[in-house]
Amino acid sequence: MHIKTTFSMETNLRILMVEDLPSDVELIKREIKKNGIVFIDQVVETKETFIKAIEEFKPDVILSDYSLPTFDGMEALFIRQELEPDIPFILVTGTINEETAVEVMKAGADDYILKGHITRIGTAIKAALEKAEVVRLKKEADDKLRVFSRAVEQNPATIVITDVYGDIEYVNRKFEQLTGYSFDEAKGKNPRILKSGTTSIEEYKLLWETIMSGKEWHGEFQNVKKNGELYNEYALISPIANEEGIITHFLAVKEDITERKQAEVLLRKKIDELERFHRLTVGRELTMIELKKEVNTLLQQIGKEAKYIIVKS
Questions:
Q1: Where exactly are the structural domains of the chain?
Q2: Which of 35, 202, 250, 295 is least enclosed, having the fewest CB within 10 Å?
Q3: 219-274, pLDDT tens digit by residue?
Q4: Among candidates 242, 236, 244, which has minimal Cα distance to 217?
Q5: Can you give the pTM of this predicted structure?
Q6: Alpha helices (runs of H) in 4-46, residue ranges in sequence order
Q7: Residues 9, 35: contact at Cβ < 8 Å?
Q8: Helix 47-56 to helix 73-83 angle, to the nearest 10 degrees?
């Protein structure tokens, strides 16, 4: 639910009041207007009408008395918690002892106001709405973070995050499956644990110069798994900078290309075999042509017709 945090003539705040005294309703409404808040309201005093108002009126904030003839503020708070926990809830009551006030706040109320200090109502509403918006934005950010986290963890590519010194801070599940190193085994280590020795020092130097300058590096490695098995991967390594533009981490996204490299080797071998066969075949054909030419020449020398027709290519 989106909570309004700004007040204007164009946008009416929807206020649900749980109150049985018309005089108190008017007192509260008058004080809210004094604070420049433009609103529409609905007043209820029973459990049934309260539930219906939450579902149909869809309030932005709830103001509830603590004690009513057939209903009370604590019950209203519990219903709010169950149906729409993000709607700000402010208890507005004539009298309340300290113990009850603490109980109400622990139960999830955003604030409580004594009717003798009703001038606080405008400030309390604004504060409660702003708090609700902060909570909403945090929840939104947390939801996005969870989606991002699942996307990284379940990604079919190997993902490694290191600090600026190259020490591993995070690896995803694919890394564990491919290399044989668990997260705990890899954490704090340098990616050199995968080094096979086939990549030159010059290439590593170029890699570090590239990413330390804020640019992306991409290329291929032949690395070694925990069990000693070699594998090939294509890597894209990017710097991660903070708000000030300072590089704090490096992100490596790597694809296992072992099968592709093996297929390339087999294809190259097959092409070489075909080329060798072609050279041998062409060589035989040229030899046969020369032999036929010699036979024709000998026949012509003894006065006979040429036996073979030579087709020029």
A1: 13-150, 155-256, 268-313
A2: 202
A3: 999 999 999 999 999 999 999 999 999 999 999 999 999 998 888 888 778 877 77
A4: 236
A5: 0.59
A6: 22-34
A7: no
A8: 30
Q: Within 154-231, where are the H helices?
A: 173-179, 183-186, 201-212
| Rounded-to-integer distance, Cα 38 and Cα 13, Å | 6
Enumerate residues 6+ apart whose C-beta is below 8 A from 308. Answer: 292, 293, 295, 296
Same fold for the domain at 13-150 and the one at 155-256? no
Fold of 13-150: Rossmann fold (3.40.50)
Higher pLDDT, 310 or 153: 153
Q: Are 296 and 308 in contact (CB under 8 A)?
A: yes
* CATH classification for the domain delimited by 155-256, as one of 3.40.50.1220, 3.40.50.300, 3.30.450.20, 3.40.50.10490: 3.30.450.20
Identify residue 21 by its one-letter amino acid code: L
What number of other Cβ atoms are within 10 A of residue 292's Cβ?
15
Strand 168-171 with 158-163, pairing: antiparallel
Element (H, E) at 79: helix 73-83
Residue 104's closest CA among 78, 136, 130, 69? 78
Token pair for 103? 């109980």
Report DSSP state, residue 234: E
CA distances from 10 to 13, 87, 187 (A): 10, 21, 54
Does residue 125 register a pLDDT over 70? yes
Determine how many CB atoms are found less than 10 A away from the CB of residue 75.
15
For residue 311, what pLDDT is reported? 67
Question: For the segment 9-48, what is each residue's pLDDT rounded down to a tens digit?
Answer: 457 899 999 999 999 999 999 999 998 899 999 999 999 9
Q: Annotate 124-163 with b (16+ C-beta within 10 A) or e (fewer).
A: bbbebbeebbeeeeeeeeeeeeeeeeeebeeeebbbbebe
Which of these, 219, 211, 201, 220, lies nearest to 164 by C-alpha position? 211
Say which residue the tokens 């606080």 belong to. 120
